[in-house]
Specification:
Layout (H helix, E strand, L loop, with lengths): L3 H4 L6 H14 L13 H5 L5 H4 L1 H11 L3 H6 L3 H5 L1 H11 L9 H13 L4 E3 L22 H4 L10 E9 L16 E10 L4 H15 L7 E6 L3 H11 L6 E4 L1 H4 E3 L4 E12 L35 E14 L5 E14 H9 L11 H10 L9 H22 L8 H19 L7 H14 L3 H5 L1 H32 L3 E2 L1 H11 L3 H10 L3 E2 L1 H7 L1 H4 L13 H10 L11 E2 L6 E12 L2 E3 L13 E5 L1 E2 L13 E5 L7 E10 L2 E9 L10 E6 L1 H25 L5 E7 L4 E6 L6 H16 L5 E6 H7 L12 E7 L3 E4 L14 E10 L2 E8 H22 L7 H32 L5 E4 L5 E8 L5 H5 L5 H12 L6 E8 L7 E7 L1 H6 L4 H11 L3 E4 L3 E6 L5 H17 L2
Parallel strand pairs: 1-2, 4-5, 10-11, 12-16, 29-30
Antiparallel strand pairs: 2-3, 3-9, 4-7, 6-7, 7-8, 8-9, 13-14, 13-15, 13-20, 15-19, 17-18, 17-20, 18-19, 21-22, 22-27, 23-24, 24-25, 26-27, 28-29, 30-31, 31-33, 32-33
Helix pairs in contact: 11-12, 15-16, 15-18, 16-17, 16-18, 17-20, 18-20, 20-21, 21-23, 26-27, 30-32, 34-35
Catalytic activity: tRNA(Ala) + L-alanine + ATP = L-alanyl-tRNA(Ala) + AMP + diphosphate
Main location: mitochondrion
Subunit structure: Monomer.
Length: about 1050
C-alpha cells in the first residue's frame, strides 16, 4: 500500500499538513527522527523521508494495510484519522475501561470495612492526622493508631481484630506529587489488623476473596510478591489460593520485610499487584515492553514488579512474626500479628478505569475546580500545567484535613508542614495563571468531598478552614512576587548553586519554605548550600512549639539573634533552670539584653521613648519557660549590685535552644542596665502554686478519664495549664454522660483526699515507656526523660511544675465538657485556690438571687425562676395578641379602598398602606413584624369580597432602617390577572435594598432602607394599576 492513498487530497492542504506533522511528531519516537530538521507528511508520502529507517511504527501500519484487500482498506479508517488528537483521545479512553466492579471511592471504602466487620473485626474510625505518638510528627500509615498494641505497650482490644480507613499524610516524597500517577501527600489507607489472632493463611485468603469477589478483579490480572525466604506464604498463594507460580515473585528483604526499627517486632510481607498489561506475559524482556528491565530479570521470564507502567501495588500484607534483638537475631513472637494496607486511591484507579489516582472521584472534582479557576478545562491543560493542577488538588485535601484536626500554620513542626503545603498551592496556582486568591475555593470542594466520605468534622470546621486559608494566602501573596523576583535573579546568576544565606533570606523575608526554593532550583539544575542554611536556622529548629506566644521572638528573627549573640549560639546556651527546687535566685547574672530583636550591651544605648520592653537572658533562673501546655512564670528581676535598684516585671518566658528569654517591662523610668549585671530573679510564688495545682490536677484528670472511659478510649490531644484553670483535650468517641463526668470528679477529688506523694524521676526513655509512662501531647523527648509519678494513679513524661503531694491540689471542680472536633472532647476545670474563688463567687451569686427573687432556700430558686419564665411567656403572648388586634383596627381605618377595574371591566379593590404612619396610635405601637402585618392584611382582605389586593408595610421600629412588607390578593384576582404578589413584593423590596417573594396570592419581603419605603410603595401601586388595566 502506498501511503499516498491516505494523504491524497489532504497532503496539499497547509492546515492539514501542519496538523498531520504535529500528529506524527507525537507518534514517532524522538530517537528515530531529528525534529530539528523541518519535514512534513508530504516528505514521507513522496518518499523523500526514508521509510523503513526512520518511521518503523508507520511502516508497520502500512504493511498491515497492504495485506488487506482494497474494499477492506476502504472500510478501515485512514492513517490520518488514526493519528488525529480526537482519535488518540478515544483510543486512550477505550484502553481505560474499568476492570472489576465499577465502584465509587465511598463504595470501595464501605465494602472494605463491611467485609472485615462481617468477619469479626471492630471498625475503628480514622484517628487524627496528629498522632498520639511523640516519635512521629504526623499519622503516616494506617497502623500508627495501633502501634502501642504491636509494641506491647497497650492491651489489644476484644475481639483482637480491627479494620479501619485511616487518613494519612506524608511529605517525604513531596517532589513526586503530581509528577507520577500515584504519589500523594494525603491519602487513605484501608487496613485490617490481627493482634495475636488469625495469621498468614487467613489473611491471604481474605485478601484474595476481597479483591476477586467483592471488587470483582479478574484473577488473571493479579500477581503477588513474597519474601524470598517465606516458603509458607509462597505455598499458600500457590496451593491454597491457586495462583500460578509464574505470577508469584520472590523478592529480597529490601522490598518484602517490615520492621518498626532496628529492634522490635518485624516480619515478612506479601504484596498483591494489579497487572495493567497481562497480555505481555511473564517474559518482560521479549514482551515488547519499552521501559528498562533490570539485568536480573531481563529475558528470564520473571515479572518485573517494579515496572510502574505495568504494575501497581494494591494490597500489602505484613506478617509480624519475629522480634529482632539488639544483636540482630530474629526470635519468634508469642503473639503473631497482621498489619495490612490498601491505598484507597490506588484501588479506585483500577476499579474506575482511569489513568492515574488523580482522575478518580476522590480528586477529579478538585482538578476540574482548579482548572476552572484558571479559566480552562482540565483536558486542555498541558502536561506541565496538569502537574500544577494535581499539586493544588493533592495539597487541598491535605490542608483541609490538617486544619480540621487542629493544626495551625506556623514555622515549626506540623504547622510548618501545613504552611509549606498552602504556599506550594499558591505558587502552582500562579503557574496556572490564577492571580486572585483561590485556595479557599478549592478547599471548599475538598471539604465537600471529605464530608461526603463521612469525615463530618471537616465540614464542621469549614469556617475556620476558610479563615485560616484566607489569612495564610494573603500573608504569602504580600511577599511572593518580590520573593519570586529575587529567586529569578539568583537563578539567572547561575553560580551552580544558591547560597544558604540567600535561601534563608527567601525564607526569612519572603516566606519561601526552603523545600520550595530547593524544588524551584532543582528545576534549573541548581542546588542549595543546605549546611549554611541549617546554620542560619539552628535556633528555630531547636524549638518545637506549635503556636505563637505573646512577647516571643518570631522564628526568622531567632536565627539572626543567635548570630548576634555568638554565631553558633554558644554564647546564650547557658541558662540553668532551678525552678523545680527554688522560687528565687539571689544572684543571677545577665548574659544578654535584647531590644526589638537586637542584642544590646546596655539599655542606656537605647533611644529614649523606644524602650517598651526588654528581653533578658540569665545564667540561672527560677522562671519556668512556657512548654508542655504550661504557661510561663511571671515575677520580677531586681538589680542588686548598685543603685538605683531597678526592677523589671517579667510577663513571659520562652525557651531559645537551652536559653531562657525573659520578656520584661521596666518598673520606673531608669534604664541603667548592662550585660553582666547581677539581679535577683523572683517568681510570683502564689501564681506558681495555682499553676502547680492545675498541672497535677490535669494528670489526675487524665488518669480518671482513662479509668472511667477505658484506657484505649482516651488519648491526650492537647492541654493548657495556667493560674486560672486547666484545659484538657482528649480523643473520645462520644460526649461524657452526666454520671461519667460525676465519676471523674469523684475520682480526682478522692485521690486528692488520699494525699498521694508525687515521685519525680529521670529515666531512659525506653525504660520510662516500658514502665507505662504516658507521653505528653506534642512534646519531643531526649534519651533521658523526666517522669512524674503518682503511685498507683498516674505516670506521665512531663517537664512541668507540680505539687509535692496531691493534697496540695486542694479541690477539683469541672467547669465544662464539650466537643472541639469530631472525636475530640474538651474538659475545663479549676483546682485549689481558683476553685475556692469560683465557689465563693457562685455562693455570692446564689445569695443575691435569693434576695432578688425573695426565696429563703437556694433549692427554691429553680422553681421560682421557672414560674417567672412562664409568667413572662404568658404576658408576651397577651401583648402580641393585643398588638395584632390593634394593627387590625389600624388597618380597618384605612378603608374604603381604591377601586380599580380590570381590563375586562370588573372592579378590583386595592389598598397599599404604611401602617406605622396611619396616626399617632400606629407610631406608638412601636415594633412591627410579619405576623402582625399579615394578620392585619388578612383581616382587610376578608372585607374586600372576591376581588381584592392588600399590601401593608412598616418600618420594623421607629428609629430602625429595616422595613417589612406583606401582600395578599384573592384567588380570583390571581387567576384572572397578571398580578403575582411574590414578584411584586420582590421588586418593591429591591428599592429598599432588600428582597422577598412568595406565592401569587400571598408574599412577604423586607429591606434595609426605610427612607425608600414610600417611593417603593408608590411604584408598587403604579405597577399594580398597569397590570390590572393591561397597559
Amino acid at each position: 500500500m502506498d501511503l499516498k492513498e491516505h494523504t491524497f487530497g489532504f497532503a496539499n492542504s497547509p492546515q492539514g499538513m501542519q496538523w498531520a506533522t504535529t500528529s506524527l511528531r507525537q507518534l514517532v519516537p524522538r530517537n528515530l527522527v531529528s525534529w530539528s530538521t523541518p519535514w512534513s507528511l508530504r516528505d514521507y508520502a513522496t518518499g523523500t523521508l526514508p521509510r523503513w529507517k526512520w518511521c518503523p511504527r508507520i511502516n508497520r501500519y502500512a504493511k498491515r494495510e497492504r495485506a488487506l484487500s482494497r474494499p477492506q482498506r476502504s472500510a478501515r479508517p485512514a492513517l490520518i484519522a488514526t493519528l488525529s488528537p480526537e482519535a488518540t483521545a478515544r483510543k486512550k479512553a477505550a484502553e481505560r475501561v474499568a476492570v472489576g466492579k465499577r465502584l465509587s471511592s465511598n463504595e470501595i471504602r464501605a465494602a472494605f470495612l463491611e467485609f472485615y466487620q462481617q468477619r469479626g473485626h471492630r471498625v475503628v474510625p480514622s484517628a487524627s492526622l496528629v498522632p498520639d505518638d511523640p516519635t512521629i510528627l504526623l499519622t503516616i500509615a494506617g497502623m500508627v493508631p495501633f502501634k502501642p498494641i504491636f509494641l506491647g505497650q497497650r492491651q489489644p482490644p476484644d475481639p483482637p481484630r480491627a479494620v479501619s480507613a485511616q487518613r494519612c499524610l506524608r511529605t517525604n516524597d513531596i517532589e513526586n506529587v503530581g509528577r507520577t500517577k500515584r504519589h500523594h501527600t494525603f491519602f487513605e489507607m484501608l487496613g485490617n489488623f490481627s493482634f495475636g489472632d488469625y495469621f498468614k493463611e487467613q489473611s491471604i485468603r481474605w485478601a484474595w476473596e476481597l479483591i476477586t469477589e467483592v471488587y470483582g478483579i479478574p484473577r488473571e490480572r493479579l500477581c503477588v510478591s513474597v519474601l524470598h525466604a517465606d516458603q509458607e506464604a509462597y505455598e499458600i498463594w500457590r496451593d491454597v489460593v491457586g495462583l500460578p507460580e509464574h505470577r508469584i515473585v520472590r523478592m529480597s528483604e529490601t522490598d518484602n520485610f517490615w520492621s518498626s526499627g532496628p529492634t522490635g517486632p518485624c516480619g515478612p510481607c506479601s504484596e498483591v499487584y494489579y497487572d495493567f498489561k497481562p497480555e505481555l506475559g511473564t517474559n518482560v524482556a521479549s514482551g515488547g515492553h519499552e521501559t528498562s528491565v533490570p539485568p536480573a530479570t531481563a529475558g528470564t521470564g520473571i515479572l518485573d514488579l517494579n515496572d510502574d507502567e505495568r504494575f501497581i501495588e494494591l494490597y500489602n500484607l505484613v506478617f509480624m512474626e519475629f522480634n529482632r534483638d539488639t544483636e540482630g537475631r530474629l526470635m519468634p513472637l508469642q503473639a503473631r500479628n497482621i498489619d495490612t494496607g490498601m491505598g484507597l486511591e490506588r484501588i479506585a484507579q483500577v476499579l474506575q478505569g482511569v489513568p492515574n489516582n488523580y482522575e478518580t472521584d476522590l480528586m477529579r472534582p478538585l482538578l476540574d475546580k482548579t482548572a476552572e479557576l484558571a479559566g480552562r478545562a482540565y483536558a486542555s491543560l498541558s502536561e506541565r500545567e496538569r502537574v500544577s493542577a494535581k499539586i493544588v488538588a493533592d495539597h487541598a485535601r491535605a490542608v483541609v484535613h490538617l486544619l480540621a484536626d487542629g493544626v495551625q500554620p506556623s514555622n515549626l513542626g506540623r504547622g510548618y508542614v501545613l504552611r509549606r503545603l498552602i504556599r506550594r498551592m499558591v505558587r502552582h496556582g500562579r503557574q496556572l495563571g490564577i492571580e486572585q486568591a483561590f485556595t479557599e475555593v478549592v478547599a471548599g470542594t475538598a471539604v465537600a468531598l471529605a464530608a461526603d466520605a463521612g469525615y463530618l468534622h471537616v465540614a464542621e470546621h469549614r469556617a475556620r478552614i476558610t479563615r485560616e486559608l484566607q489569612m495564610e494566602e494573603v500573608r504569602f501573596r504580600q511577599t511572593l512576587e518580590r520573593g519570586e523576583a529575587l529567586l529569578a535573579e539568583l537563578l539567572r546568576e547561575n553560580r551552580g548553586h544558591i547560597s544558604g544565606e540567600d535561601a534563608f533570606e527567601l525564607y526569612d523575608t519572603y516566606g519561601f519554605p526552603v523545600e520550595m526554593t530547593q524544588e524551584i532550583a532543582a528545576e534549573q539544575g541548581l542546588q542549595i548550600d543546605m549546611d549554611a542554611f541549617q546554620r542560619c536556622m539552628e535556633a528555630q529548629r531547636a524549638r518545637a512549639r506549635e503556636r505563637g506566644r505573646p512577647g516571643s521572638i518570631d522564628l526568622p528573627a531567632e536565627s539572626e539573634l543567635v548570630a548576634q549573640l555568638g554565631g553558633n549560639g554558644t554564647a546564650i546556651d547557658r541558662t540553668e533552670f532551678v525552678g523545680y527546687e527554688q522560687e528565687q535566685v539571689a544572684t543571677a547574672r545577665i548574659v544578654a539584653l535584647i531590644v526589638d530583636g537586637k542584642a544590646v550591651q546596655s539599655l542606656a544605648s537605647v533611644p529614649e521613648g523606644s524602650l517598651n520592653k526588654v528581653q533578658v537572658i540569665l545564667d540561672r533562673t527560677p522562671f519556668y519557660a512556657e512548654g508542655g501546655g504550661q504557661v510561663a512564670d511571671t515575677g520580677e528581676l531586681q538589680l542588686v549590685q548598685r543603685e538605683p535598684r531597678i526592677a523589671l516585671r517579667v510577663a513571659d518566658v520562652q525557651q531559645l535552644g537551652n536559653a531562657w528569654i525573659h520578656t520584661a517591662s521596666l518598673d520606673g523610668t531608669s534604664a541603667d542596665l548592662h550585660v553582666g549585671d547581677v539581679v535577683t530573679a523572683r517568681i510570683d510564688a502564689a501564681r506558681r502554686r495555682r499553676i502547680r495545682a492545675h498541672h497535677t490536677g490535669t494528670h489526675l484528670l487524665q488518669a480518671a478519664l482513662r479509668q472511667v472511659l477505658g484506657a484505649d478510649q482516651v488519648a491526650q490531644a492537647g492541654s493548657l495549664v495556667d493560674s486560672e484553670r486547666l484545659r484538657f483535650d482528649f480523643t473520645a468517641p462520644r460526649a461524657l454522660t452526666d454520671r461519667e463526668l460525676e465519676l471523674v470528679s469523684e475520682l480526682v477529688n478522692q485521690w486528692i483526699d488520699e494525699a498521694h506523694p508525687l515521685i519525680v524521676e529521670h529515666l531512659p526513655y525506653p525504660e520510662a515507656v516500658q514502665r507505662g509512662a504516658i507521653a505528653m501531647f506534642g512534646e519531643k523527648y531526649g534519651d533521658v526523660v523526666r517522669v512524674v509519678n503518682v503511685p498507683g494513679v498516674s505516670m506521665e513524661l512531663c517537664g512541668g511544675t507540680h505539687v509535692r503531694n496531691t493534697a496540695e491540689v486542694g479541690l477539683f471542680h469541672v467547669l465544662s465538657e464539650s466537643s472541639i472536633s469530631s472525636g475530640v472532647r474538651r474538659i475545663e476545670a479549676i483546682c485549689g485556690q481558683a476553685a475556692r474563688d469560683f465557689l465563693n463567687q457562685r455562693d455570692l451569686l446564689v445569695r443575691t438571687l435569693q434576695q432578688t427573687l425573695r426565696v429563703t432556700q437556694s433549692a427554691e430558686l429553680v422553681a421560682r425562676a421557672e414560674a417567672l419564665l412562664n409568667e413572662n411567656k404568658l404576658l408576651e403572648r397577651q401583648a402580641a395578641s393585643a398588638r395584632t388586634e390593634l394593627a387590625k383596627a389600624l388597618a380597618m381605618r384605612c378603608l374604603p379602598t381604591q377601586q380599580l377595574r380590570q381590563e375586562t371591566g370588573k372592579p378590583v379593590a386595592l389598598l397599599i398602606k404604611r401602617l406605622d404612619q396611619v396616626d399617632a396610635v400606629g407610631t406608638a405601637l412601636g415594633s412591627w413584624d410579619n405576623d402582625i402585618l399579615g394578620a392585619a392584611a388578612d383581616a382587610i382582605l376578608s372585607q374586600l369580597g372576591d376581588r381584592g389586593i392588600v399590601v401593608l408595610a412598616a418600618a420594623a421600629a421607629p428609629s430602625a432602617q429595616q422595613v417589612i412588607m406583606v401582600g395578599r390578593c384573592t384567588p380570583l384576582v390571581a387567576s384572572e390577572t397578571p398580578v403575582h404578589m411574590g414578584r411584586l413584593l420582590q421588586a418593591a423590596a429591591k428599592r429598599c435594598r432588600g428582597g422577598g417573594g412568595g406565592k401569587p396570592t400571598q408574599a412577604q419581603a423586607g429591606g434595609r432602607d426605610a427612607t425608600s419605603l414610600d417611593a417603593a410603595l408608590a411604584a408598587l401601586q403604579e405597577e399594580v394599576s398597569r397590570l390590572l388595566q393591561g397597559s
